[in-house]
What we know:
- This protein has about 260 residues and is of the alpha+beta class.
- Helix content is about 25%, strand content about 35%.
- The longest helix is centred in the N-terminal third of the chain and has 33 residues, at about 5-35.
Amino acid sequence: MDWGRAKSVLILAFLLLNAVLGYQLWMEWRERIDSAVDWTSLSPETRQLMTNKGIRIDSEIPTEMPLMRELTYRLKDSPASAEGEPTPLDPPPNTRIVFSEEELQQSLGGTIPELAKYRFDNPGSNEKMFVLNRVEGDWPIFDVRVELYYQNQKITGYRQDRIDSVTFGSEKPQKVLPATQAVDKLIKNYLPAGSAIKEIELGYHGQMFDSETQVSIPSWRVLLEDGEVYYVNANSGEVVTDRADPSGEKPAADGVAGIGG
Length: 261
């Protein structure tokens, strides 16, 4: 055996391996940088206020500003919005299926009506249940959802809001307010010291009334680490606060107020 040649081959292979690993590390670093919060998108005043109040943002600040308009729908069933026992699942599927749309459909698509129209809401889920939001026009309706209750890594039951007759308003679609503006104003006017923003997402939200027909408005959902939720009207800038419920039940609207500043 030509040991000199073998040694050269081993050295070359080692160098190539280092190059590959180095490239992978560089790509991972770039992905982290790309997904980091763009602090410069917030005003200097807000960034200083965050420092003073100990507020942090653990989520990307979305940059999309699509044209959207309000939608209306008819509420067929709303057990997920009210009290009552979940519908049991027998046999109970493994919890891992929620992380795969295909597995979820295979396991529960024949049991839960129109399940394909709902999308997993990981940030909105908790230690008692997984949440899936009804999707319309690629945007979630935060008030219409499926709740999958689980324990011991098994999904034991579900509750589901069902709707039909979904229509968009006749008004001209408006470009939504940027997420940075919503976050900026929340920090200045609403968030208490020590708050941590867990997630920021665009979708639809509306105050639920005792009526079959509901109206849902384009809104930014700002979810805090402690479970409290703020919905910022993506057209007018008004805010609805949903207080966290320790029981894990769907929270009710706490109040509506215009944002100043």
